[in-house]
Amino acid sequence: MSLFRSLPTHIIGSMIHGARKQVIYAAPSISDAVASALITKHKSEEATVTVILDYNEELFRLGYGEYESVNMLLEAGVAVRKESGLRIGCLIIDEQGWAFSLPPMAVESQTSVDYLNAFELTADQIDRFTQAMGGTDDGKAGKPSNPVPEIGREPVSDAEIKATNDAIKQTPPQAFDLQRQVRVYQARLQFVEMELEGGKVEQRTIRLPKTLKQSIFANDKEIEERLNASYKLIDAKSSEKLSALRKDAEALRNDYAPSLGKRLGRVILSTKKKEFEEKVNELRTRIENYCKEERDELQASIENSLESLANNLAPIIKERPPTELASRCAEVTLDISKDYLLDILRKAAPSAPEVLAKTKIHLTFKDVTIEMLRDSEFQQRVKQEFRYEDWVKPFSEFTAAQSKHHEV
Questions:
Q1: Residues 301 and 353 in one domain
Q2: pLDDT (tens digit per residue) in 222-247
Q3: Do 122 and 214 share a domain, yes or no?
Q4: Is 186 in the same domain as 167?
Q5: How many CA atoms lie within 13 A of 177 on its CB side?
């Protein structure tokens, strides 16, 4: 007989049904198939039953077992002892024993026979395991082989059972077969948001202070409509290089992360994520270099705009000076008006470093969710935008898993 073997939950359950003297089951948690077999043996009194689990809400959410299965054991009168942090399994049936490991159902099915997850124990190992877990010497009810077992010394408390049951009933985990299919997509696709913040510096404006608006407009609707209480600070020529960078950013985003529509957003193939991030980092470096190299030129452009605005508004201020200006000089001249305007405008306008400090690329990735996979438009648009990828199998498997869940 082979030392290694496949030991899924339904086979463990079948093996327990054949027990004659004793069954010891120790594992992170337990499934219905195993719990049902243990209950049958317990009620028949054909064999002693020892159960040790790590009773933990998080384990149930990951799918190491089902909390309802533990409830089944307790309701049937099967004693369940707790060992916190238990992550390996041990099964002893009469004179045979196995060490095993069952994957969390959120990762892999526990009923699959396609993996080797157990190996058989020797007679000496079985004796040592039996003592460590507090089984009986001869497999009959009565005196334990070790009155102070190494693991599972305390029973699962009623308070812990109630708290766990209430928490899971309030926020139950998603069906594990659906979770596994969602991870298939998370390994293949991700949502991505890419934004070049502050990239349109030519659109930066200055808001005219209230005191200036009152003097300049003076209820003149024509002037107010023309100025709209704001003024463009930066000449379009000063932002040509950044405009080119902005176009490169848009092209990069469109090439790697096509849009599935405004509602759905953009997605990228996981296999291209690293390559995409490398190109984004290259673009980020170019933007940083631009900000360093063009700072002085941009500041000069802002100064020219403020000078031009002050020259245009100075005659108006001279004719209708604000009280705070008129009360502080004997005569409001054109030069004084311009100097007054420049002082106010410079305080209100951002500097080139302030403008460029906000010029950054933001990159945000988000995983595909089960709710998104249920969206038929999402599936259709993914197939359309990534037509050279084979989506038939993952989409059909998700649909099958979803149908199975609804039937249950």
A1: yes
A2: 555 555 545 566 665 656 777 888 89
A3: no
A4: no
A5: 14
Residue 176 has, within 13 A of its CA and on its CB side, a CA count of: 17
Summarised one tens digit per residue, pLDDT across range 353-385 is: 887 877 888 999 998 887 887 788 888 898 889
Contact 249, 283 (CB under 8 A): yes
Full domain range(s) for residue 8: 4-173
Give the closest residue to 6 by CA, choosing from 130, 114, 158, 151: 114
Other Cβ atoms within 10 Å of 29 Cβ, number: 25
Distance, CA of 396 to CA of 83 (rounded, Å): 40
| Global model pTM greater than 0.85 | no
Asked if residue 338 and residue 274 are part of one domain, the reply reads: yes
Q: Are residues 275 and 334 in the same domain?
A: yes
Q: d(Cα 67, Cα 53) in Å, to the nearest integer?
A: 11
CA distance 60 to 56: 7
Domain boundary among 173, 193, 222: 173
Q: How many independent structural domains does the chain possess?
A: 2
Distance of alpha carbon 54 from alpha carbon 86, whole angstroms = 6
Q: Which of 186 and 153 is assigned the larger pLDDT?
A: 153
Q: How crowded is residue 318: how many other Cβ atoms within 10 Å of its Cβ?
A: 18
Residues 355, 81: Cα–Cα separation, whole Å = 65
Q: What is the CATH number of the domain that holds 33?
A: 3.30.870.10
